[in-house]
Design goal:
This protein is about 55% helix and about 10% strand. It is of the alpha+beta class. It binds flavin-adenine dinucleotide. The site of flavin-adenine dinucleotide (FAD) has 19 residues, from strand 3, strand 5 and helix 12.
Length: about 600
Amino acid sequence: MTYRAPVRDLAFSLEAAADLGRLAQAFPGADRDTVQAVLEAAGDFAAEVLAPLNRPGDLAGAAYENGSVTAAPGFAEAYKQFADGGWMGLAADPAWGGQGLPKALDLAVSEMVQAANLSFGLCPILTQGAADAIEKNGTKRQKALYLPKLVSGQWTGAMNLTESQSGSDLGGVATRAEPEGDGFRLTGQKIFITWGDHDAAENIVHLVLARLPDAPEGSRGLSLFLAPKFLVGEDGTLGPRNNLRCAYIEHKLGIHASPTCVMLYEGARAELVGAPHAGLAAMFVMMNAARLQVGVQGVAIAERAYQQALAYALERRQGRSPWTGDYPARLYDQPDVRRTLMLAKARIEAGRGLCLTTAVAADLGRLARGPAAQEAARQREALLTPIAKAWCTDMGVEVASAALQVHGGMGFIEEIGAAQYYRDARILPIYEGTNGIHAIDLVGRKLLLGGGQAVRDLIGEIATTAVSLQAADGAVLHAVGARLEAGAAAAEQASDWLAGRRGPSEADLLAGATAYLKLLGDVIGGWMLGKGALAAAARLAAGEGAEDYFKGKIALARLYAEQVLTLTPGMAAAVTQGAEVMEVAAEAL
Ligand SMILES: Cc1cc2nc3c(=O)[nH]c(=O)nc-3n(C[C@H](O)[C@H](O)[C@H](O)COP(=O)(O)OP(=O)(O)OC[C@H]3O[C@@H](n4cnc5c(N)ncnc54)[C@H](O)[C@@H]3O)c2cc1C
């Protein structure tokens, strides 16, 4: 089945859930017409150029031969079109050739790219992340030399953190950097490097975490280096190959067309980015941008899988429908299948709203009026990022699984396509920091932001939306508001309990981390849908037309409230259970 870009839903989410209007002062060029035009053009490109390459890319994969990687069939040509279309630099600074549009709009575009072709979409994610890291940490010379090429997409970027002994804990990174002349030589091996080698662009800019000779132990001894595949002259021209190469590519469960490379650094020439031993902080710029993008990948794969399941449910007939009396009836007219589809759609819209809201916070963190507003926005972005990454990627896997289930046995047959989405989705909770690590980040660091005020403010805003829903016209909105209010109360109770579990009760804090992230994600999802329902009700009242569409938004909020928000008090109990119950010897398990 082909991909249908959800331009209307994205535009609705940007306005109703993520409050894109708050960016009007900072981005006067991003008016409603521009946003619509960009979304439509991106949707066409995703559906017509990228989506048709998805299944062939899964079958053929990227190829490795004699030390070089060839991108999957058609990918290099599509990449050229992507770069020529200016998509890489949509949100980048015009000083480097970007278009200076909001990150939130760029993320909406990215959702369509990722949904059309997840393997392809990883290349721009890493390239934009590398550009961000150089922009924040690089010297004037590094910015002038590398940013225009990355922003235009002429060169791509890759992120080199992981080594076989060092994954979640980067303190064990062993790649060495020896000073030589006015630069450095890198020696070591990195594994799992996405788009670490390929033939789709003329150069690859590797950002590499490595250790200087005098480096302290652990993660505080890491520095960030830039090592290009082809050496770059001072005028930007390409020189000889650097001493780095791909040893082989991994054979994976999914995303076959994304080359996952084992990279060998054999005295590769490199330059330092940022201060010595401050590499992890510098790399965090790239990691944070990528985390939100991976959250978007979760939404995207869910949308793609959902679209296919909906199409199948409208076509396939089985059993009698209690609604229509038809025999055989469309699967769509079986209540359990309809519930599955609606819940999937509601969770997609919840995740979409969460990612776009995080991106709006990122935009405001740079450009809001006044330092206090900027700091509040930065804290909001920092708080929401691990939730967007982990909640949306777990949701992506679950929705891809549910969408496969809607196909019955056909879902398990590769030719149908649902299986690819499920396989592709499974990496998302693992890379860019496993979801477990993001949950620990949430309870360990993000809960403390502003002395706990950041999370209190967030829950306060959710409670305010719950009040608005209960004050609005209509029993359905009242019911959604009541469920959201209970969800906000559960989130508050769990947050307070965790805040009291620091120090000696750290095991309690960590044991509740994943349940807490899910609880906050579920409640934020209800908030996004509640805001959408309020906006839809306002448009219905204004007689804008498209009644079915807006009624659908209210129905999704109601279903989510009854199927998800009702469970939040139970989730709070799971968060606050503590670690004692797990004091069980391994032999007992
Ligand atoms: C397809 C693919 C692409 C990738 N792309 C890149 C890339 O471009 N660049 C790059 O540098 N890396 C990349 N990675 C690596 C990826 O980021 C790591 O696999 C990931 O961070 C997890 O590290 P690990 O595999 O060593 O797992 P481990 O760290 O060994 O973790 C194993 C399990 O233990 C849990 N765990 C670990 N530590 C703790 C703890 N302290 N508390 C609680 N639970 C814990 C984890 O959540 C996980 O479930 C990629 C990986 C894959 C598979």
